[in-house]
Sequence to fold (463 residues):
Amino acid sequence: MSKKNSTNPLVIILSLLLLLAIAYIIGTRNAKLPVEQTEQAPALQQDTANAATPSPLLTSAHDPTLADLGVRPDWTSLDLWQETITHDDFVDLLTNVYTVDDTWKRYITIHKDHAIIRTDTRIKDATYRLNFSHELSAASPERNWNAAGDLPPGSQQRPLAGVHIAIDPGHIGGQFAKLEERWFKIGNAQPVMEGNMTLTTAKIIKRQLQILGAKVYLIRKENKPVSLRRPADYRAEAEAKAASLGKTDEASITALQNKFFYRTGEIRERARRVNLAFRPDLVLCLHYNAESWADPANPTLTANNHYHVLLHGALTRSELAHDDERFEMLAKILQRSHDEEKPIGAYIAQGFAQFTGLPAYNYSPMSTRAVKININGVEGLWARNLIANRLYQCPVIFLEPYVMNNQEVFDRVQLGDYEGTKMINGSMRKSIYREYADSVTEALKAYYLDHRIIHEPMEDDDE
Ligand SMILES: [Zn+2]
Fold:
């Protein structure tokens, strides 16, 4: 809790300087002795296990206690949520949604009325104390977004009136599609580029949601990166990471530079802009799924075709070991994002089942990276920890319908977007883009009609 007391500011400054000095000394030691560090903190084994022969000069730049390109979080920002969640709700979300095994116990110790959370794993005793609520959990804790139940009334015509929705068309597309490995081509047919497909879909969804009253923001409007940084700008980070992995050959460094460009850095920049500028009530991450196509110039086709919908959760043991990812997970738990993601995700999963006719995709029950979310027997709803659904500071629904290298999907992509219906495999179908968009739009319409107060106008009302 933020307490205003009479502590001398000089004492605070001196304490901070002391902490910084300790952090520096320990940080320097870790750079030289990564193996010893793993013995002190077993949680770090996963991350530093690969750091067998690091160059001392470069490991100081790569911090294995943070996710790639991550920054050290300010744990005091969690003070907003002191005493807002009960012990039982916290444990339920932590164990049933946000983690896949018991390794969270290395970082979080649960007591009857509080939890002690490790904050900076480079420092042995650096912790944060979170006090639980003694009564019910807060229905609407502090947050920059509105759940459907928090909104002023909508109407039958405009059930999404005033709902702020950001649409993230997954990947970059265009001239970057090959680099980001979201490109394949069969013979003389048009290449299939996921980034272009998600943008086409996003524009249709935007139009449809606006008609229902939503304020919609496209996070990417062209088949270009949102970030201004290019692979060359990630050279230092890529070299440091490569050194920590013991793979300092040029091909490994280039691969890391590219990945930091098209995925890590690009998504971080999208999240930064959305969180700072738009602060939506909901983010929709649009994707098309694929199965391994091996050679992009001579791709393997598959008979499989399916949908699934992802919510945030299921941090793996190595992800939990990252101080920033653990912090971001806690912010999600304390904002109660899952309470909103779960029903919206269920409506959209049902929308896909109904409008696409596809079966649900199932991860292996033994999966160590996905958790099945059960709600009213809905199929195809899973939790996973992806950089996009973790960094957007509001409920995020991540969509994975259709398998691009399925023959029917490939044929439909070749037809492009069109009005009305065309004959596909013996039945009249909308364009794949409109079918995708309808699944999402109709699901959101139904969700807000069911979960928001709907104002029924009198006959002589104008509005
Ligand atoms: Zn994708």
